[in-house]
């Protein structure tokens, strides 16, 4: 999809997948499964055990394996969790600008999106959250939820433990349930540290959805895990059993291999992404100094403030038309997205350099 959506002369730096070779342990596990004709239904234990090893080694967190459920992917897992804890018409708070499918999936689910914008430098704002939670719970009988993106897409913000603790306290004070999208958790770059949401005090009634898909570029091999806080296990157990049939069995095999045996590959990837992050900052300073770029602490996404270029609310449209570079349009990410564009820097330095050259030619 990344390379075939646009005409061949367009450089695609939009959808969140990476231009990287598949990790060898993942390729080996897939080849072994095919050789064994192992192409049936998935089993959750394979994934859960591998993720538990990764979370313990990476973050010192003992994943509560007994409180997990296999789901098709992170967004569909979020949808199933929202069905458990909210009803049609109920509000869900999001921190805009935020991952576009949050709006699409929640609206399709007949939930009402309530925005709590990030600060100008991409941080969670307690006053804004307090106000949004109050608006969300203002109607008697409402079941409100908070869909947290941790780390945050598109800004690359890695929320601190203190920020998450304050957000959790405010949600609890207003009776708001929290679901954390932690798909980018493995992609925290040097200088920052990911805080697994369910390690934050007060998250006993919360949920997290995790996956290896972004960290190891496995979007075509569907699988994810929903994880419940200690007091939410009963609700997670009520998820329909057929939801666990949605993930790909080969996806489970691939994700488990990545989590268990692909950490060396991941560390090399993170080093390369850090180099690209620095390269992008230099390129923009040289070719497009009017663009404001705060390098993110996580993900492989760059959130570019292009308002000073005079390209209107959707600068990505101008970069595509005039420069033949495909970025994501900022307005689609909600309030705070006008005048911005999201760039995927998980590509070769040569492509990244050429992309910025083309973007500069469009101005």
Task: Write up this protein.
The protein is of the alpha/beta class. 38% of the residues lie in helices and 13% in strands. The chain is built from 11 helices and 13 strands. The protein has helices spanning 24-35, 44-59, 74-85, 100-108, 126-136, 161-173, 233-237, 249-261, 263-287, 315-323, 349-361, and strands at 11-12, 68-71, 91-94, 112-115, 145-149, 177-181, 207-210, 224-228, 292-293, 301-305, 325-326, 328-329, 340-344. The strands form 3 sheets. A 7-stranded mixed β-sheet has the order 2-8-7-6-5-3-4, with helices on both faces. A 4-stranded antiparallel β-sheet has the order 9-10-13-12, covered by helices on one side. It has a two-stranded parallel ribbon with strand order 1-11. Helix 1 runs antiparallel to helix 8, helix 2 packs parallel to helix 8 (249-261) and helix 5 packs parallel to helix 6 (161-173). The longest helix is centred in the C-terminal third of the chain and has 25 residues, at 263-287. It is globular. The mean pLDDT is 97.
What gyration radius follows from the Cα positions, in whole Å?
20 Å
Pairing-aware structural class of the strands and helices? alpha/beta
**General form:** globular
Largest sheet: 7 strands, mixed
**Unreliable parts:** none
Strand content bin: 5-15%
| Element string (H = helix, E = strand) | EHHEHEHEHEHEEEHHHEEHEEEH
- Going across the major beta sheet, what is the strand order? 2-8-7-6-5-3-4
Average the pLDDT over all residues and give the rounded result.
97
Estimate percent helicity. 25-40%
Distance between the termini: 27 Å
Number of strands: 13
Number of helices: 11
């Amino acid at each position: 999809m990344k390379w075939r959506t646009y005409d061949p002369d367009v450089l695609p730096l939009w959808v969140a997948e990476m231009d990287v070779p598949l990790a060898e342990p993942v390729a080996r596990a897939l080849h072994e499964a095919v050789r064994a004709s192992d192409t049936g239904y998935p089993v959750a234990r394979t994934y859960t055990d591998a993720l538990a090893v990764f979370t313990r080694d990476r973050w010192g967190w003992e994943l509560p394996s007994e409180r997990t459920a296999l789901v098709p992917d992170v967004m569909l897992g979020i949808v199933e969790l929202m069905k458990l804890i909210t009803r049609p018409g109920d509000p869900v708070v999001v921190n805009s600008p935020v991952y576009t499918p949050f709006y699409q999936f929640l609206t399709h689910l007949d939930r009402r999106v309530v925005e709590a914008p990030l600060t100008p430098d991409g941080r969670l704002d307690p006053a804004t959250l307090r106000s949004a939670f109050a608006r969300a719970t203002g109607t008697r009988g409402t079941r409100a939820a908070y869909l947290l993106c941790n780390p945050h897409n598109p800004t690359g913000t890695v929320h601190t433990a203190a920020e998450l603790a304050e957000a959790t306290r405010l949600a609890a004070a207003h009776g708001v349930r929290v679901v954390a999208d932690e798909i980018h958790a493995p992609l925290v770059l040097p200088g920052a540290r990911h805080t697994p949401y369910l390690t934050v005090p007060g998250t006993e009634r919360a949920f997290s959805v995790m996956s290896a898909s972004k960290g190891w570029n496995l979007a075509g091999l569907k699988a994810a895990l929903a994880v419940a806080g200690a007091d939410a296990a009963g609700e997670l157990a009520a998820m329909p059993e057929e939801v666990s049939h949605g993930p790909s069995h080969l996806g489970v095999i691939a994700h488990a291999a990545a989590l268990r045996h692909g950490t060396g590959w991941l560390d090399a990837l993170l080093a390369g992404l850090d180099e690209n992050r620095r390269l992008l900052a230099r390129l923009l300073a040289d070719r497009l100094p009017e663009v404001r770029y705060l390098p993110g602490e996580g993900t492989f996404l760059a959130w570019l403030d292009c308002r000073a270029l005079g390209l209107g609310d959707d600068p990505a449209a101008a970069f595509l038309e005039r420069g033949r570079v495909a970025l994501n349009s900022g307005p689609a990410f909600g309030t705070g997205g006008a005048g911005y564009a999201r760039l995927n820097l998980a590509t070769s330095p040569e492509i990244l350099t050429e992309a910025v050259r083309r973007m500069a030619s469009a101005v």
